[in-house]
Amino acid sequence: MILAEEDYLYKNMPNDSLELTLKRPPLSLPFYYGWFVLSLCFLTTLTSAGVRSSPSVLIHPLEAEFGWSRALIASAISMNLLLFGVASPISGWLIDRYGPRKVMLGSLGLLIIGVSGTMAMNQFWQFFLVWGVIVGFGAGGVGSVLTATVGNRWFVAKRGLALGILGSASSTGQIIFLPLFMAMITYAGWRMGSMALIVVALILLPLIYLFMRDDPSEIGLEPYGAGQTVAAGAGGVASLRGMRSRNASITLREVVRAPTFWLLAGSFFVCGGTANGLIGTHLIPHEIDRGIPQIAAASLLGVMGALNMVGTIFSGWMVDRVQPQRWLALVYALRGVSLLILPFVENLPGFFVFAVIYGLDWFATVPPSMMITADTFGKQNVGKVYGWIFMSHQIGAAIMASSAGALRTWMGDYQFAFLSGGVIAMIAAGLALQIKPTQQQVTSAPAAPQAAGA
Fold first, then answer.
1. pTM for the complete prediction?
2. DSSP character for 365?
3. What would the CATH number be for the domain defined by 34-211+255-433?
4. What is the mean pLDDT of residues 324-341?
């Protein structure tokens, strides 16, 4: 009788209490669970970045073992970058529809398959397939679109800081993986280095399956800082910008009619070309061409990654306090200056100075671009809208990766490629200054109340 009565009371308890009883975090933590979710996304993006950026240290070993030309290898890397971008709007749609957790698991699975295939290849078409296509698609699922979605879903207060931390994951991956990968290539061969990448990805799979959650509401929580009032100052201090109704949606036609979308896409095209396409792919070969030892060259890229981690987190902290479009313009201008200096660098100390300057703003464009996207189109639309913007980033990366490789083959050096990168970075700074973010009108479900600050 007593058990039956308790069962009756349990089944008929108020819905709110029942939800609170059933929706609990899978781990009991002394801090907000969103920070743990952020760390899982950070580690996943870090691993993806390590895998995706590895071809920059494979160029010389592949030239030596298979006799492939640099332009040919660069074409596979270019396809990798292009498909990394093409996957972005697809993964954005999948994340918005099915949640980050499933997309993260599927993407890591593709990365494991791709890198495993690389270890058995002996023909260029195989390298093109596994690294250019499979790894490209896999990395696209856990790139910046994931970062933008998770940061905007789980955080209201300290949103810029959260985006900055997640945005720094790519550079952190380069800090860890590139020098390690180069050392393993030097002492044990590039196939053993590929094995290390596979092991790290395998470790992450059960952690994501068990502990990753798509939204705070799944575990009975609100976004961090929800309900807090943050005063907005004249400088564009962080507020509840872009915080839309949960059911808000926006059509592709509305997106492409917004000038902000095209300004972000155009400036991000340049960002991808100058970062992933030019420096991320060709800096190490350029340094080796100038007589820098291989491990030292990879270590300099690690220095850039370390400083970029600082710069990206600082960028996120800044966009909580200043107008993001002005900060974005400043970052592009600094990048342009550093690229215009690079052709005149001849020795290791000079490359170290370049690594410091360029490293501080390498991924610093990401937090302001994500925040402008969320502020303009609403946080529930970040995945699909930022996916299209990031695709333009990777189209720029693919074009610059292949173009710089072709220019190196034709002209014998990278001078013209780096100077061109500096000029277009200055153009991107001008585009950023033209951005005037205003929230677009979106259609919401009739019964859904509009969130504060919308």
1. 0.69
2. T
3. 1.20.1250.20
4. 92
